[in-house]
């Protein structure tokens, strides 16, 4: 099965082509958040590199969030269009699941953190079992102060995700030696991991199409809040 995966949930845009769970090629871009300008050229370029066209793709995979509202809209709209044109299914993967799987450490619970503004983060609890990370809680939005209280009896824990870069000093102060903070280069959701998880989703048949695919926002945007929507 040929899979094209797209991740635009954060400042880093990435595209990967996989054959089943083997990554054939991946490209990423992290410059001025120009996702709307570079995503389609990246897809064209990566398909050329692996001698494929969109007709060769059997499964489209996309990171549906949570994350950047604009980035999620761009990613989902792009994959919707490609799925519509090719009449192929879509695997929807959350950014928190991708980050947890990238951490893939069996010793302690993993909490991916994505910035939700004003010292709030999107997160969930994951543990290692049978070769994969498995989510053990609901997806949640929580303030950093509440996060410390929530995890008081569970330390040590592992933090990963782009919010680790944003709040690294706060996390070091609050958790000290009771938390492992992943390095920045491991804290970004990447399309290759989205593709691997997408292949697992396809195996169980939990797929979307260009009509049913929706971004996973988890909260209203700041513009909606200001407008009282």
Give a structural overview.
There is one protein chain. This protein has 229 residues and is an alpha/beta fold. It has two domains: 2-95 and 189-227, ATPase, nucleotide binding domain (Nucleotidyltransferase, domain 5); 96-186, Nucleotidyltransferase, domain 5 (2-Layer Sandwich). It contains eight helices and 13 strands. It has helices spanning 35-49, 69-86, 95-103, 144-150, 162-166, 168-175, 191-204, 222-227, and strands at residues 2-7, 13-19, 22-29, 59-65, 90-94, 110-112, 114-115, 120-123, 126-129, 132-135, 140-143, 157-160, 179-181. The strands form four sheets. A five-stranded mixed beta sheet has the order 3-2-1-4-5, with helices on both faces. A hairpin with a 5-residue loop joins strand 1 (2-7) and strand 2. Helix 1 (35-49) crosses helix 2 (69-86).
CATH superfamily of the largest domain: ATPase, nucleotide binding domain
How many extended strands?
13
- The CATH class name of the largest domain reads Alpha Beta
Percent of sequence in beta strands = 25-35%
Organism: Mahella australiensis (strain DSM 15567 / CIP 107919 / 50-1 BON)
Protein name: Peptidase M22 glycoprotease
Pfam families: TsaD
GO biological process, one term: tRNA threonylcarbamoyladenosine modification
